[in-house]
Design goal:
heterodimer, A: 115 residues, mainly beta, 6-stranded mixed β-sheet, 4-stranded antiparallel β-sheet, B: mainly beta, 7-stranded mixed β-sheet
């Protein structure tokens, strides 16, 4: 069974600075996808970024980027120029590449942004 | 596109009562998922459907839980009888078949059983 681990229950960053959230996963599959979801106090789950395992290039979406280390099974999220609106719970998630299509979530990291 | 629509947004019910949560997926999406979020267990998959057919319900905690998808635009999750430990946020999500397609989540239903 696949597992996703987020070792940082809480993180704090100063506004305009950079923060990195960690995620590791365990799988025997070679074809899979990884995601970061943001859950603000409104509780809406919002997709931040996704990475296909077969791609070597790290995904980037504006201020958000990932460091995907396939051999180490590591998938960290870097948030640059942090903004107050980035404060939320962040969940790392894994999905197999076949039609199973289920998401397995990590336990989440609460990010606080200090003004 | 209105996104995935869940109702009600909040539900408070007494122990022993029947509770029905509703979900309207995005039009054209062929997968529908029900997740439950609690502090203790995080986000866990309860059941998912493909083309209205239940594929995997191994996450459904007990026989008190049931889910249906009578058509492509509607699904329900029912708890009967409800218990205080069922208190959680229940999310519905839908997606389109294809490698790597991400989910679209609804806003969730916060269920409180007293």
């Amino acid at each position: 069974a696949q597992t996703v681990t987020q070792s940082q229950p809480e993180m704090s960053v100063q506004e305009a600075e950079t923060v990195t959230l960690s995620c590791t996963y365990d799988t025997s599959e070679s074809d899979y996808y990884l995601f970061w979801y943001k859950q603000p106090p409104s509780r809406q789950m919002i997709l931040v970024i996704r990475q296909e395992a077969y791609k070597q290039q790290n995904a980037t979406e504006n201020r958000f980027s990932v460091n995907f280390q396939k051999a180490a099974k590591s998938f960290s999220l870097k948030i640059s120029d942090s903004q107050l609106g980035d404060a939320a719970m962040y969940f790392c998630a894994y999905k197999r590449g076949n039609a199973g299509n289920m998401l397995t979530f990590g336990g989440g990291t609460r990010l606080m942004v200090k003004p | 596109d209105a996104g995935v629509i869940q109702s009600p947004r909040h539900e408070v019910t007494e122990m022993g009562q029947e509770v029905t949560l509703r979900c309207k997926p995005i039009s054209g999406h062929d997968y529908l998922f029900w997740y439950r979020q609690t502090m203790m267990r995080g986000l866990e998959l309860l059941i998912y459907f493909n083309n209205n057919v239940p594929i995997d319900d191994s996450g459904m905690p007990e026989d008190r839980f049931s889910a249906k998808m009578p058509n492509a635009s509607f699904s329900t999750l029912k708890i009967q009888p409800s218990e205080p430990r069922d208190s959680a946020v229940y999310f519905c999500a839908s997606s389109l078949v294809g490698q790597g397609r991400s989910y679209t989540f609804g806003s969730g239903t916060r269920l409180t059983v007293v």
